[in-house]
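re the bet — no i am not wrong, look at it urself. input seq straight from the record:
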Amino acid sequence: MKKIPILICLAIVVVGGVLYGNLRKEAGEKQTLQQNLVKVIESKQSSKEVVAIDFNQITSFSWDKLYIFTPYTSEAVINKQLGFRWSKAGILKYSDSFDLIVFVKGEKVVQYVKLPRTNGQFIVDNKNEFAPDEKVEFKLD
């Protein structure tokens, strides 16, 4: 009889540990992606006013589409552009300090990163959706 509560507690600890490990891994991947992107931008700052960024070179995961959303983009606009509801789509609504870069595979966000606009901004006048083989223009400040 006493074995059942012990097994339940053990299962909860194991599942909790796995979930915590996955969250830490995802946070580490996001931080690495943001650091790599900033390094690419900083390395090109002395070269030109507008540079092309190849996201395939700085990502370590598989993705089908990349979306760039600029400040104050609403949750509804983000969800419509993605083609599905994303629980974190509202993070830009009241912010003007960063661009949101969202990587999608199929119908799922596989990674996203908030890039501070202190180094410059993405040029997404007519297009904010990109395939893995496309480069994205970034205007340096």
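see?? The helical segments are 3-43, 75-82. told u. also Confidence is low (pLDDT under 50) at residues 15-25. so pay up
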